[in-house]
Design a protein that fits this description.
The chain is of the alpha/beta class. The chain has two domains: about 15-135 and about 285-300, 3-Layer(aba) Sandwich (Rossmann fold); about 145-280, Sandwich (Tumour Suppressor Smad4). The protein is about 20% helix and about 35% strand. It is built from six helices and 17 strands. The chain has helices at about 25-45, 50-55, 90-100, 125-130, 205, 290-300, and strands at about 15-20, 45-50, 70, 80-85, 105-110, 135-150, 155-160, 160-165, 175-180, 185-190, 190-195, 220-225, 235, 245, 255-260, 260-265, 270-285. Strands 1, 2, 3, 4, 5, 6, 7, 9, 10, 14 and 17 form an eleven-stranded mixed sheet that branches. Strands 13-12-11-8-15-16 form a six-stranded antiparallel sheet, with no helix packed on it. Strand 9 (about 175-180) and strand 10 (about 185-190) form a beta hairpin. Helix 1 packs parallel to helix 4 (about 125-130). The radius of gyration is 21 Å and the shape is elongated. The two termini are about 40 Å apart. The relative contact order is 0.16. The model has no long low-confidence stretch (mean pLDDT about 90).
């Protein structure tokens, strides 16, 4: 889903509008704001910013003299050609999920390097120069769509990382019966079940013992969480399958969450259907480091044992 190395990069259209949102804290936001404004002027990008970010950073009129509009975060992508997410991977996941249209998203990580974000405060100027020159690459990542059927209010959510079914009571096991395209797969008695995209394979899926997948792949990983049977193992399935799981929780408390953002209760007997979403996440990235470099550094695979 990603363009080959050396392919032309993504270039913003002339007069492009950038929507800025995120969860950056006041200190970090005020620290990077002058460099951000200078970089946007150099790129020729107009911008609008989320009201929540302005309030959190206590940005003054002098900080916003070039700003076209201050909007509620849920509306900051309206009329925009791309979105800048200031914060961590969680901020970027929220930005992707809440977009009204599948716009390119550029992530600035305000801490240690994340898996999904493209740059850090120290590299912000260089990254914006590359954006203006059309040297950032666009990676299109598959997403999941989950829908709940049965008792209770209908629910439909999209996720870039994962959809997780889990116990609503700590220490209490759940029982889940999962089918793939109407064929029985397994019954899980344990702490839950993770449905992960390749992008999300380095998130909760990794902690649950699931495999790491190249995010350019198209597949769905099913990873049981702490199953009581050692024979129930993670499985990678084709992206076009329909995964249906029936909730058979003995204590009557279950939750469904999407990218860790939303948690909604599931009733006994509810059916959760997870399929590939028609939506696509469009992430803007620098050429280096790529996924392998970030993975190697994040997991410290290049550090010799002492």
């Amino acid at each position: 889903m990603s363009p080959p190395e050396g392919a032309p990069g993504w270039r913003p259209p002339a007069g492009a509008m950038l929507g800025i949102r995120g969860t950056a804290r006041r200190e970090g936001l005020r620290q990077i704001w002058p460099a951000l404004m200078a970089g946007l002027r150099e790129c020729g990008l107009a911008f609008q910013v989320a009201q929540e970010l302005v309030s959190r950073g206590r940005l003054r009129d002098s900080d916003l003299k070039d700003c076209r509009a201050v909007l509620p975060e849920a509306e900051v992508d309206r009329g925009a050609d791309l979105v800048l997410s200031l914060g961590g991977d969680g901020s970027l996941l929220a930005a992707v999920a809440e977009l009204e249209a599948d716009l390119p998203v550029l992530g600035l990580h305000m801490g240690s390097r994340g898996y999904l974000t493209a740059t850090t405060p120290e590299e912000l100027g260089t990254c914006l120069a590359e954006l203006g020159a059309g040297r950032l690459r666009e990676e299109r990542r598959m997403m999941l769509r989950a829908r709940v059927e049965g008792e209770g209010a209908p629910l439909q959510v999209d996720a870039l990382n994962d959809v997780v079914l889990s116990s609503g009571l700590p220490g209490r096991v759940v029982r889940l019966v999962t089918r793939i395209d109407d064929e029985a797969l397994f019954m899980v008695t344990g702490d839950g079940l993770i449905h992960s995209t390749p992008t999300g394979s380095t998130a909760y899926n990794l902690g649950g013992g699931g495999p790491i997948l190249d995010p350019a792949m198209e597949a769905i990983v099913l990873t049981p969480v702490m199953p009581h049977s050692v024979s129930v193992r993670p499985i990678v399935v084709a992206p076009g399958v329909r995964i249906e799981t029936e909730v058979r929780s003995r204590h009557g408390r279950m939750l469904i969450s999407a990218d860790g953002r939303q948690s909604s209760p599931l009733a006994e007997g509810a059916r959760v259907v997870v399929e590939r979403s028609p939506r696509v996440a469009r992430l803007l990235k620098r050429e280096r480091p790529g996924f392998i470099g970030v993975l190697r550094d994040k997991l410290k695979w290049n550090v010799e044992d002492e």
